[in-house]
Amino acid sequence: MAKIFITGATGFVGEQLAKKLVDQGNEVHLLARSVSKAKKMFPDEQFKIFEGDLLEPTKIQKAIENCSEVYHLAAYAKVWDKDPQAFYKMNVEGTLHILEQALQVGIKRVVLTSTAGVLGPAVNGIVTENTPQTVPHSTEYERTKAISEQESLKYLDKGLEIVTLNPTRIYGGGQRSESNAVTKLLERYHQGKWRIMPGDGKRIGNYVFVEDVVQGHILAMQKGRNGERYILGGDNVSYQELFDMFGEITGKHLRLFNLPIGVMMTFARLQLFMANTFGKAPLITPNFVKKYLYDWKVSSEKAQKELGYQITPLKQGLTKTLEWLKNN
User: Fold this and answer.
1) Secondary-structure breakdown of the chain: helix, strand, coil percentages, each rounded to the nearest 5
2) pTM of the model
3) Does domain 3-173+207-235+297-311 have CATH number 3.40.50.720?
4) Whole-angstrom Cα distance, residue 271 to residue 128?
């Protein structure tokens, strides 16, 4: 039995990873801002819950002591914050606190969860881990996660083994949270409440089933090469193909209305103005709308070859997601 430290365990992927590790016989140490919330989610005695967050090194140290492995999933992934420094503090400084404490207590191996968004869109063919970035990052989340990846490499020279993961658009059963936006969208479609097709519907994204991402984390800890990054993706499909496939599975073929990018941009600018004026978080920002101008095709071949990573076909994953939605 290993003692494993996880951040972000109360999140969409983190919850399922933590429970999977306990199912495998490990003891899992969790860092949580709300202990009461964490205890409801993780009542089993194999979960050791510690109060604290990424900006409190002394509390991190208490939680990480006596552990042999670290999974760092916690991140600040909102579309906007009234404090422009919030993303940097959590995603960069918070990550460095985790790495520093891991180094101090003698932990050898850390798996860092980033995002495929840091790699940029597919401008010149399908994106891999080594594709040069040619388009500026669309969001502060992506920008600060990219900085976090670069800063973490400095710890390789200090003796820490680090494997970085770049998941794509995650979907599947679990939490109805911002991190599970694809499933929330599918649910609204199933309920007949979603009738919009972004742009012309032809832009391609990559969709990965949550169970694949969880397994990919465990495989990365076991087999990932030190200092390497791995894309954890699924199938590359357009918005039109995604909705067509889900419509076929549900038996509901809703007519979706194309929303031109120009209209989306105007709405986003108004949302950002209201946010900056009144402090209310926007539904979408102009920089986020720019993501709809590109395809986001990626390859998970490296993870498949080196980790033994396996992809659940999109139709199978969507079928499981629908079953979950019906039962929850």
Assistant:
1) 45, 15, 35
2) 0.96
3) yes
4) 34
